[in-house]
Prior knowledge:
The complex is a heterodimer of chains A (about 375) and B (about 130). Chain A contains 8 helices and 19 strands. Chain A has a 6-stranded mixed beta sheet with strand order 10-11-12-9-3-13. Chain A has a 6-stranded antiparallel barrel with strand order 14-17-16-15-18-19. A 5-stranded antiparallel beta sheet of chain A has the order 5-6-7-4-8, covered by helices on one side. Chain A has 3 domains: about 20-60 and about 155-245, Probable tRNA modification gtpase trme, domain 1 (Gyrase A, domain 2, 2-Layer Sandwich); about 65-145, 2-Layer Sandwich (Alpha-Beta Plaits), CATH 3.30.70.1400; about 295-370, Aminomethyltransferase beta-barrel domains (Elongation Factor Tu (Ef-tu), domain 3). In chain A, a hairpin with a 2-residue loop joins strand 6 (about 105-115) and strand 7. With about 375 residues, chain A is an alpha+beta fold. The radius of gyration of chain B is 14 Å and the shape is globular. By secondary structure, chain B is an alpha+beta fold. Chain B has a single domain (about 10-115, about 120-130), classed as CATH 2.40.50.100. Chain B has a 6-stranded antiparallel beta sheet with strand order 1-2-3-9-8-5. A 3-stranded antiparallel beta sheet of chain B has the order 4-6-7.
Amino acid sequence: MSADSAAGASSASLLRTPLFERHRALTARLVEFSGWEMPVQYSGILDEHRAVRERAGLFDVCHMGEFRVEGDGALDFLQRLVPNNVARLADNQALYSQILRPDGGTLDDLIIYRLGDGRYMIVVNAGTMQKDWAWFSEHAASADQLTLTNISAETGLIALQGPRALAIIQPLTETPLADIAYYHCQPGAVAGIPCIISRTGYTGEDGFELYCAAEQAGGLWDALLGAGKAEGLLPAGLGARDTLRLEAGYCLYGHELTEEITPLEAGLGWTVKLDKGVDFIGRDALVAEKAQGLRRKLVGVELTERGVPRAEYQITQQGETVGALTSGGMAPTLGKPIGMGYITSGETTPGATVAIEIRGKSIPAVIAPLPFYKRPRS
Amino acid sequence: MATDDQPANLKFAPTHEWVRLDGDIATIGISHFAQEELGDVVFLDLPWDDAGERAVQAGSHFGDVESVKATSELFAPVGGALVSVNEALRDQPELVNRSPYGDGWMLTLRVSDPSELDKLMDADAYAAFTNESH
């Protein structure tokens, strides 16, 4: 066997979340992720993936970044920075959007919460937090009536995802969780710990993301793990987080979204409001791309023969390279090999046959619609 | 197939394959240490179609094992004629994790030169070897 399989984190200069010692105590396998020492798995990626789909899983996402944007100028400032329409947010409502370069390329994808009039919280990816903060700060310099605060270091974030998530959290809070609609939140307390309870997630299941003070994240984690024990709640790491979001067809920044890729190419046109009445950074580029036709298109791919598709593998049609995968793997719930990638010059219709080049062999596949997996609705 | 899970009578390669010799038939798989490093095995690429037809050189690349997070090459710890390949691993790759020395066996070879096993590590040497690198 070659020596370069799952390597453990060994650098002492990696960042650690407030939950690090708990991961160690749970004998999690730790790896480097975006400069952080994070759990990739505890009991096993497949085990954790199944727990989330069937019961619930608990994720440490403290490494993500959070900014507060406040003041009378906050809405206008945000409207100029993101393609989605921030003005349509009611209090305690959230939206998914991006920040773009002037050429339309994606700097990061993010979630914007309206916590109140002139009070917003932005949640960004861990690996791009510094870049995003510099971008926000640079553009805030010329903005009026605006206070920008980087609250990443003082904010903890724990995600509890799965069909039993609500049942597990409800006994710990007086907030009626069933009244929080998807992509909405409520300030409240869980296990006595004040937090923003958000009905959001990255797994394709129902679930909640809880924002609390960083120094209280440990207590919150312990309380949730204890409360979920009888329901079969498992701690889940970054490995399962990736297999879950891939089945759900969600983009991962650095893979389906990069500075070279526009949200239109990534199939995120539904988050882009060209006619919201405010010129946002990148708008001209997106208008032009829409008029001229997309340079590339995100597709789902399913192998029809055995193999494991992975990022960077070439997509071919009739022996010609037409694109490349940006993510891939064996889907644990679907039981088949799937991938996401970009086609730059070929057929993108679901059902069209393609091949994926795996170690010099062309493995037959088909274009598949996204998402691959949709949770059963009661 | 034997389901001996005790590695005491096995020899190990530094690339984490093990060999058990019964007469002139060598059974080959990957170690407990290897499957643990890999995590959940989801796919194996083995020479299923070549059983009975091929010579395998010691040290040659005979297949690939894929886990959720990693792809790893497999190297023959000894050489010989390929006798059989574990069909169960086509649909149950997880056998490699569950029973790396038993049901997760990968190949059997009729060894051409049994003295090749002398170059490999015994269980104690392999245990020390894996402790050193971690």
